[in-house]
Design goal:
- By secondary structure, the protein is α/β, with parallel strands linked by helices.
- The protein folds into two domains: 191 residues, Hexapeptide repeat proteins (UDP N-Acetylglucosamine Acyltransferase, domain 1, 3 Solenoid), CATH 2.160.10.10; 74 residues.
- The protein is built from six helices and 15 strands.
- It has a six-stranded mixed sheet. It has a five-stranded parallel sheet with strand order 1-4-7-10-13.
- The chain is elongated.
- The C terminus is likely disordered.
């Protein structure tokens, strides 16, 4: 038991730069208290002492703001940072070294008995406010961004953002990024956020714009060829199309395209 507590405290120091002393972590971190209480409630639950387990879990929720059903399975070195509003359902499974932030829900989407909550692999980070719903697997090393709503399986090492959750970074890209930045960050993404995370909607629209530009250039070449043969008059190219682009939130200029000071991408450039 004491070895597990030491592991939990060591995990806090690895993932929370605000941690100062072991005594402070043990006495003031509600995530630690919730995990310790869950070990006791789960011990009672698996021995068919259901009512005492539920009573103790409700007492732990009262003091920590974290609701963990006694039937949930939680691995080693799991860290619940801040923790207020975290809800973990009865059939949820959380692997070793996972990190959950405040407002996370590991919930079910069915009233049927049996497996109805998600299964998290090892080293998964779930950002603040994220909802992972249904009996879906979340692969080892996955990152779920803050406020994402995940209703489909997530492959190992992937990064998911948005509503509904979309994969914006595959395992190979994540491995390459972590190797490039290991010395500074030890491969840990606080709140499930990654640097310069792309916007999947903006990427999709930009691909459509690229296709439009390509087709426009082809049509212009056809128009010039028809004019040379005297078939029709060449039409002028619409230069405004070249300015069309949607910036992702990680754009280098740091401006919100919808903000008053942001440049108008579709405006005609001054003469």
């Amino acid at each position: 038991m004491f070895d597990r507590i030491k592991e939990d405290i060591a995990g806090v120091f690895e993932r929370d730069p605000a941690a100062r002393t072991r005594f402070e972590v043990l006495t003031t971190y509600p995530g630690i208290h919730a995990v310790l209480a869950h070990r006791a409630t789960h011990w009672l639950w698996v021995r068919n002492l259901k009512w005492p387990a539920r009573v103790l879990s409700n007492v732990a929720r009262l003091f920590t703001g974290i609701e963990i059903h006694p039937g949930a399975v939680i691995g080693r070195r799991v860290f619940i940072d801040h923790g207020m509003g975290v809800v973990i359902g009865e059939t949820a499974v959380i692997g070793d070294d996972c990190t959950l932030y405040h407002g996370v829900t590991l919930g079910g989407t069915s009233w049927q008995k049996g497996r109805r909550h998600p299964t998290l692999g090892r080293d998964v980070v779930v950002g603040a406010g994220a909802k992972v719903l249904g009996p879906i697997p979340i692969g080892d090393g996955a990152r779920i961004g803050s406020n994402a709503v995940v209703v489909k399986a997530v492959p190992p090492g992937a990064t998911v953002v948005g509503i509904p959750g979309r994969v914006i970074e595959c395992e190979q890209d994540a491995d390459r990024r972590r190797r490039a930045d290991t010395a500074a960050r030890i491969g840990f993404d606080a709140y499930g956020a990654t640097r310069d995370a792309p916007d999947p909607v903006a990427n999709a629209i930009n691909r459509l714009l690229d296709h439009i530009h390509h087709m426009d250039s082809r049509l212009e070449a056809m128009s010039q060829a028809l004019e040379r043969r005297g078939i029709m008059q060449h039409f002028d190219h619409d230069a405004d199309l070249d300015a069309g682009v949607i910036d992702s939130p990680s754009a280098a200029d740091g401006l919100d395209p919808g903000a008053p000071d942001a440049p108008d991408r579709g405006a005609t450039p001054p003469a």
